[in-house]
Specification:
mainly alpha; two-stranded antiparallel ribbon; 8 helices; 2 strands; about 5% strand; DUF5063; DUF5063_sf; DUF5063 domain-containing protein
Length: about 220
């Protein structure tokens, strides 16, 4: 793609690529800010909002016709940025409501739920998005869109959707005044199929950390 073509795209705010890249960059920046821990009480509502907005971009990518990159083979974008610090910061912020139960594929009959972590999910999504952003910033717009579309369908879309359900559930339990019990051992290396696990996921921590930001109790 020529410089003139790239400039024409990046200078047009109504262009599909510009809109997707803006939403991707906004998510990365916002999640990084949340992970800093400056406003820990609002971490869950903020993440709910950011993941919801990101999935709008994902839905547009999923509904779009197949995007074909200009080059046959994906150019090397260099080493992937480390997300371990982001993952650890999010895990600390969300502890002990970080772990939740999820069915990997709802169309597989009698699928057993598995334990997942919101912090892992968000970090994995950021990794996928950054990979595409590296192409976009290098001027490989079609490659970036192809990667974001492909990885939305294969990885970050399902991952973000699962995290969204967990975040929405946490907020719903507070808003509907149906707090869960105290955390009781559910972890990503444990069996999440027990019916009592979900009821033991949060409880007092949810009320203490996200009820006030949602206006459900006096701060």
């Amino acid at each position: 793609m020529s410089d003139a073509t790239l400039n024409a795209i990046t200078n047009d705010p109504d262009d599909f690529a510009v809109q997707i890249s803006d939403q991707v960059e906004s998510f990365i920046v916002s999640v990084t800010e949340v992970a800093k821990g400056d406003d820990p009480d609002s971490a869950v509502p903020y993440l709910l909002l950011e993941v919801s907005q990101l999935l709008l971009a994902g839905g547009r990518l999923g509904a779009h016709e197949d995007i074909v990159p200009d080059e046959r083979y994906e150019p090397d974008v260099g080493p992937e940025p480390d997300v371990d610090e982001l993952r650890e910061r999010l895990a600390a912020l969300l502890d002990p409501v970080d772990v939740y139960s999820e069915v990997f594929d709802p169309y597989v009959p009698r699928s057993a739920p598995v334990a997942c972590r919101i912090s892992d999910d968000i970090s994995d999504v950021v990794t996928d998005l950054r990979h595409g952003m590296a192409h976009y910033r290098a001027g490989r717009v079609s490659e970036a869109l192809w990667w974001w579309q492909f990885s939305y369908l294969s990885n970050w879309g399902p991952t973000a959707s699962a995290a969204l359900r967990a975040l929405q559930s946490l907020v719903a339990h507070v808003r509907l005044d149906t707090p869960l019990g105290e955390l009781d051992g559910l972890d990503t290396d444990s069996d999440a199929t027990d019916d009592g696990d979900l009821e033991n996921a949060a409880g007092a921590v949810m009320a203490a950390e996200i009820a006030a930001p949602l206006g459900l109790k006096n701060a």
